[in-house]
Amino acid sequence: MTNNDTNNPKFQLSNAVDALIAQRKAWEAGTYAASNAELYALLGSTLDLFIKVRRSVELSRAVTDLLDQHGIGYNSSTSLALKIVRLVFVGKGREAKIANRAYTYARVLTVASEAGITGEQLPQFISDKHGIDELRRQDKDGETDAQKAKRARDYAEAALVNQSAVAPVAMADELQPADGARYSLALVRKNEDGTGSIVFGTNNQAVVNTVLVIAGKALKERAAQTAEQTVTKHDAEQRAENAERLAQELMSTSFQPQVQINVPVTEQAPA
């Protein structure tokens, strides 16, 4: 039996998978693409409404009134963006069914409005940001959590190259980094006598990366604090120097007034 035998289960499975892949590609290029285009256009119109409403206290209150009128849930911490999304996309009794989508759409409206995007520009904006889910993860600076973590990890890897060692360690086999990597992790146990012992080591890259992110954030914060302290110290030294210079100038300046006495003619001594 050959691989091309129509009775071969693997051949049949391969054909079935190929057919599904072709169906998926057709869906992506057709119904899915059209559906996304319609969704992005609807979100664009919703964005324009959000921008208009948030500029008006009266309209903002009207949104709340409409939520009450339609029986759609909200509370004091519900953002205006989420209120509008619930009005447009959720409706009464459907909050739980598409709760996550509602939060996602509200996040898209918030990020886009902060970026100065209009409803007409929103479809391209979403596309440029690689889709709604990626856009949802971005902060006001346009970074996702993954991007911020990578930046912190890169910072740690660069900063730790010349960092002073907390304690020297013999590189046992259990502590060797993965191939091509520089760092591994050691689990330290504090002993009863106050000493420490490495009791476990791993070069699991995912775990190492997590710790590098933590280290990067801590090192950046420490560097920022050091820089701030340096500036504060320099300012204090500069103020002290200026005060000393001013005192010296005051001491060196003569303030003896030149007084001219005018004696009346009648009191002058006779010639």
Short description:
This protein has 271 residues and is mainly α.
SSE layout and pairings?
Blueprint: H1 9-54, H2 57-70, H3 80-90, H4 99-114, H5 122-128, H6 132-137, H7 145-159, E1 185-190, E2 196-202, H8 205-252
Helix pairs in contact: 1-3, 1-4, 2-3, 3-4, 7-8
Overall SS class: mainly alpha
Radius of gyration from the CA trace? 36 Å
First CA to last CA: what distance?
Answer: 152 Å
Low-confidence runs: none
Query: How many beta-strand elements?
Result: 2
Q: What is the percentage of strand-forming residues?
A: under 5%
Estimate the mean pLDDT confidence: 79
**Inertia-based shape:** flat
Largest sheet: 2 strands, antiparallel
Task: Return the string of H and E elements.
Answer: HHHHHHHEEH
Total tally of structural domains? 2
Portion in helices: 55-70%
How does this structure look, described?
The protein has 271 residues and is mainly alpha-helical. It folds into 2 domains: 9-142, no CATH class; 148-251, no CATH class. It is built from 8 helices and 2 strands; from the N terminus they run H-H-H-H-H-H-H-E-E-H. A two-stranded antiparallel sheet has the order 1-2. A hairpin with a 5-residue loop joins strand 1 and strand 2. The chain is flat. The mean pLDDT is 79.
